[in-house]
Amino acid sequence: MTSTAQPQKPLLSHLATGAPPLLLLIVVALLPAVGLGHNTIRLLFVTLIWVATSVAWNLLGGFAGQVSFGFAVFYGLGAYITAMSFNAGANRLAAILLGSCVASLAALLVGLPTFRLRGPYFAIATIGVSEAVRVVMTNLAVTGGASGYRIMEKGAFNQLLHFYAALSLAAVAVGISMLVRYSKFGLALIAIREDQEAASDLGVNPYRSKLQAHALGAALTAAAGGVYVGYAAFIYPQGVFGFDISVAILLMPIIGGVGTVWGPVIGAVVYGLVHEELIASFPEFHLLLYGSLLILIILFEPAGVMGMLQKLSRFVRRRSSLGSHS
Amino acid sequence: MSTTDVLNLVVSAILLAGVYAAMSVGMTIIYGVMKIVNLAHAGFLMLGAYFVYELYTQLHIDPLLGVLLAFPVFYFVGIALHWLMIRRIPRSDQPTLTSLLLLFGLWLVIQNLGYLVWGSADRAILTPKTFSTIQIGPIIFPTVRLVVFGAAVVSLVALEFVLHRTWFGRAVRALMQNSDAGRIVGVNVDRTARVAFGVGIAFAGVAGGLLSMMYSFTPDFGGSFLLRAFVIIVLGGLESFSGVAIGALILALVETFSILVIPSGYQPAISFSLLVLALVLLPNGVAGLWNRRQRLT
Of B271, B237, B103, B270, whose CA–CA distance to A119 is shortest? Predict the structure, then answer.
């Protein structure tokens, strides 16, 4: 009996880790059938876009510990390239994939000179890249410069199509994040975060791993931009390349818990649901609030919501074990 | 272009380099001692500008005196911030996720507090001296730039003196070269870090005040200067004070002369291109090049 039970265990544990996310996916996929309003579905769509970008940032920022302040560059690149190739007659999916490819190339371009060096070069360069790209995009004539760019939609607008596109993207992003977390590649990234010298002594190539994680994150972020532009139909540099997009993309994983699979998802959901309310009621303070939130989380709960949940579950377990003794 | 024009451009580049050096030196000292990239630097540049502006418009204090007053005020702001936040983050010999995000959050807070208090309207400090010029031979000096350059040089010379003649300065230089060795020979790391952070912030405030005499400003003021400061300290090799001076001169020359060939809309992209070039060609900065040659001989 024991001999048959032994090989079954990994399969069961795989099912155990795989089942809740699948269940969650099915529940979210069925949500529009409940008869939610147009506006609620739009909010869900935006939140799913945020989930994809937040998970994408976490691949490099969370697992490998490399802070990027410039993920808006990939988001904007994805949005613009998808929109332009769509207008040129490309298939929707092909347009998004093209955007991802270009963003990955851009990510390699930023990473090549900066990841080779030890020190803060990468983080510094990402601030510069986002600044420079925004300047170029506001002056570029092909894309309409600062006045923006419009998608020429051929068919009728179908909100659910965009909703399911965003849902599939978020699912793919979380799937990739889970795969990375438990693969050799993910372990290499975490090793780099903890101690780069030790990692490279053990045969990890920090330079290559960081480049790969950056390119992967960029591709996912660009896809999110591509899906978003299909819905929004109109984009402008200050919107998709904006500083507050970069802030949002790094804030979400921090809220949820960096370096975990589900932290960035939780963070994105919190951010997605709260952000619109905040924008509506405090149009001028929202960045002030986000900055304060960032400081408070870093100082008091660096593990984010996931850290708080862990503490809570430990507390509950201790209470219940105390209760059974008495 | 005549030689007089070239001469005029070179002179204005040198005058600009003085302020740029004063602007970047605060980041260098904080990075050198604590290995923290002060992303909030831009915020303090902006606060420095508004500090001098408020003193001038409310109390009619001369901007130059305002800059002088900014030093102690921002020094204590820096000390307070160090006590409140910076000392709580884990010490490391390279910039961490924690320190980068903390100071980034601080920048967001300062910048948006600025918007809250002063709004987004452009401000400028206009004194009777603002538009006057001094002419020496064929070269025309704007008076303000000359004054600002003088003040920047005086502050840098004072810092150089402190670094080489005082116990604090020796401690700073020891920690920059090798923090473990510094600790072994008895440098009080916490105290030195606190004072260094204060001095770094004080220089940011002073530089902001100096810049406010030359340019108009909004609460977003520091952003473009932050990138310039990065370029300068990367060109200078991150941890060298003489490198900062060379980096500032290079950036000022490139910016001044690029006006002739690059459309003004693309100007902000220049400092970034220079940053990439520096990273690819001179990863250890101009000073690194110098050091390597010295070691070889």
Answer: B237
Chain B residue closest in CA terms to A146 = B265
Phi/psi at A294 (nearest 5 deg)? Answer: -60, -45
Residue A302 sits at φ, ψ, to 5 deg, of -60, -20
CB B112 to CB A116 under 8 A?
no
B195 touches chain A (CB under 8 A): no
CATH topology of domain A44-325: ABC transporter involved in vitamin B12 uptake, BtuC (1.10.3470)
Q: Is the pTM of this model over 0.90?
A: no
User: Between the CA atoms of B275, B277, B283 and B284, what dihedral angle is there, to the nearest 10 degrees?
Assistant: -70
The per-residue pLDDT for range B80-92, each reduced to its tens digit, is 999 998 888 887 7
Cross-chain residue pair A288–B112, CB shorter than 8 Å? yes
Which residue in chain B has the smallest CA separation from A288? B109
Q: Please give the ipTM for the structure prediction.
A: 0.84
Given a contact cutoff of 8 angstroms between Cβ atoms, the answer to whether A52 and A170 are in contact is: yes
Test the A interface: residue of B108, B239, B258 with most A CBs within 10 Å: B108
> Does any domain span residue B262?
no
- Considering the domain boundaries, does residue B97 fall inside one? yes
Nearest CA in chain B to A122: B279
